[in-house]
Amino acid sequence: MADASTYRIQGQTGEWEVVVGLEVHAQVTSNAKLFSGAPTAFGAEPNTQVSLVDAAMPGMLPVPNRECIRQAVRTGMAIDAQINTWSRFDRKNYFYADLPQGYQISQLYHPLVGEGQLEVEVDGATKTIGVERIHVEQDAGKLMHDQHPTMSYVDLNRSGVALMEIVSRPDMRSPAEAGAYLTKLRSILRYVGSCDGNMDQGSMRADVNVSVRTPGDEFGTRTETKNVNSVRFVMAVVEQEALRQVEVIESGGTIVQETRLYDPDKNTTRSMRSKEDAHDYRYFPDPDLLPLELDDAFLEECRASLPELPDAKRARYEAQGVTPYNAAVLTAEVETARWFDALLEAGVDGKQASNWVASELFGALNRLGKDITQSPVSPKQAAELLALVADGTLSGSLAKQVFEVMLETGDDPAKIVEDRGLKQTSDTAAIEAVIAEVLAKNPNQLEQYRGGKDALYGFFVGQTMKAMGGKANPGVVNDLLKKALAG
């Protein structure tokens, strides 16, 4: 794939540029729905989390959930967006079986959050992607078509669940930029705690708007591919839909503004319906809900509750000696960053800690099929292990042995060292005796080394360490071995 900033599709008639915008629907982290007290737990039995408000029973009035509004405001603050202290709910009117009210309560004209931005990094280059708005709205229910041969069932558990719709500017120009934007946005939402980001469970999904144009021309007609539920699939939609549009145009056809669906098995998009415009939904202010007015105290509370965000955390790690690559890896997921922060708080050197986590810990977790939240070794135990290396109690090889036992047993490193006699020795007399024995057993290699074959030095180090069961201090071994070999 070409550099993201110059990504082009080579068609029959020349080069084409891709224009991408994303509308991300993120389920707000809250224990109750946007306008009712019904619970929001994932995986509940159908229609067990439905209030009279959610079912649109006559006379039931919506009441905004303060926590949902708070989470949306905090999200806006995290992307440096304008927070609108006055906003209003609108009714989006359409009929569908999973929408009991016959309308969705949303925010078209006066959203809660205005313009913001995200910085993403693609192929070593940083690009700013604009965010047009964030508005809050209620989710619809779900139709279940596979429960009966001739009927569809309706599950209203999701009806009324609070969503943030985060609408980007059409600033992305490649599949890679779209993937980087969605990844960065998901990371921020998870840091803030306003959405769990579990795309496989439907709590975060993206509508992908794609058009193509000759570079420098006006925007082309866009299509919208709905409900894409992974970063990889979003990137695939951008690529495949752009290729399809180029083929249509170059074949003399016209791109129709429409809604499409993505088939991951075939890696293609297909038409779903013609794309509606805002006027088709007959938006008007919801008469049952007063405008939202936010005071300074509420905004200050939201701002004060924000955690250290990924970019700031990454910069702090780099200032503590962590390489830019390791810092990016360690801040990508909030759970990893929290684990690493706990390790740093235990007083471990940043560079040493990051190298150990990136190599030893990640390697072990990958082998065990676990993530950082399931690590058998706690940050406190890891800090103790690294301290034993730093003070000379353990060599690097012994530390690996101790770590393997920690993974199996969960025991503290000091206990393992004591129980198994794994403490590193710096006893010069004992090491000198072993070196003398190694040289005596390998006269041919000794003669070759002294004859100029310097590469054999590693052989003597290995034999000495092996004879001492890996417990000799490598620094002491090197010093004494060089003297002995010099003869």
Largest sheet: 9 strands, mixed
Low-confidence stretches: none
Number of helices: 15
**Termini Cα gap:** 59 Å
E-strand count: 16
Average pLDDT metric: 93
Proportion of β residues? 15-25%
| Helix percentage range | 25-40%
Summarize the structure.
By secondary structure, this protein is α+β, with helices and mostly antiparallel strands.
Architecture blueprint of SSEs:
Layout: E1 9-10, E2 15-27, H1 66-78, E3 86-87, E4 90-93, E5 103-106, E6 116-122, E7 125-138, E8 142-144, E9 153-155, E10 162-168, H2 175-192, E11 204-213, E12 223-228, H3 231-250, E13 258-263, E14 268-274, E15 284-285, E16 292-293, H4 296-304, H5 310-319, H6 324-332, H7 334-345, H8 350-368, H9 379-390, H10 396-409, H11 413-420, H12 428-441, H13 443-450, H14 457-467, H15 474-486
Parallel strand pairs: 12-13
Antiparallel strand pairs: 1-2, 2-10, 2-11, 3-16, 4-5, 4-15, 6-7, 7-10, 8-9, 11-12, 13-14
List descriptors.
487 residues; alpha+beta; nine-stranded mixed sheet; three-stranded antiparallel sheet; 15 helices; elongated
Describe the 3D structure:
The structure is a single chain. The chain is an alpha+beta fold and 487 residues long. The chain has 15 helices and 16 strands. Strands 1, 2, 6, 7, 10, 11, 12, 13 and 14 form a nine-stranded mixed sheet that branches. The chain has a three-stranded antiparallel sheet with strand order 5-4-15, with no helix packed on it. Strand 1 (9-10) and strand 2 (15-27) form a beta hairpin.
